[in-house]
Amino acid sequence: MEDRAAKRIHRIAKEVQLIRVTQEGLWGSDFDAKNTPNDWVAFITHYLGLATYTGRGPVSDYTPERFRENMLKVSAIAQAAVAVIDAEGKCGARHYENLPKSGAKE
Question: In the chain, how many H helices and how many E strands?
């Protein structure tokens, strides 16, 4: 039983890796390093939303294949966010993080 589970985990990890390679080719790691925590959450939320049935269209809009595809993308994006933290020690700065502190002398 564990052998089958390990094979399934390995197969899924390979699929996520392929998506990450595609994403790297499209955006590059410099783009990733500029993403804020809010950006990462927005990207993930977008694909989580695509994975769900919203009730606005036909039920046929939802398929297990569509759900799976979007969950793999969520996994790949989460992996990219962790990779940035591992490489840079942080995510990109939010626009307000570089502002002078209130009361600080300039």
Answer: 3, 0
